[in-house]
Specification:
This protein has 3 helices and no strands. It is an all-alpha fold. The radius of gyration is 15 Å and the shape is flat. It starts with 20 loop residues before the first helix and ends in a 5-residue tail after the last helix.
Length: 82
């Protein structure tokens, strides 16, 4: 779970709607712990990623904000899907 920082890419794990929240919470806990490891930090930072480990709600907010932002750009320049 990395997030966009200064134009860097975003990577995230997602689960289907309606999935088991307890399992999702455990996976999130383990991923956040792994992201905090110095070796993981070094590896990800070296690849241009900023390991964040945000909560599902925080990521959801960032995601919807970015979609709204870039949708305006796409419409403004008249891009169409192929």
């Amino acid at each position: 779970m990395a997030e966009q920082r200064g134009g860097r890419p975003v990577a995230a794990s997602q689960r289907p709607t309606g999935g088991d929240k307890a399992i999702a919470a455990k996976i999130h806990e383990v991923v956040v712990k792994a992201l905090a490891e110095p070796d993981t930090q070094k590896l990800l930072l070296g690849q241009g990623l900023d390991p964040v480990g945000s909560s599902p709600d925080e990521f959801g907010h960032m995601y919807t904000t970015e979609i709204a932002r870039w949708s305006k750009v796409v419409k403004a320049v008249g891009l169409e899907p192929n």
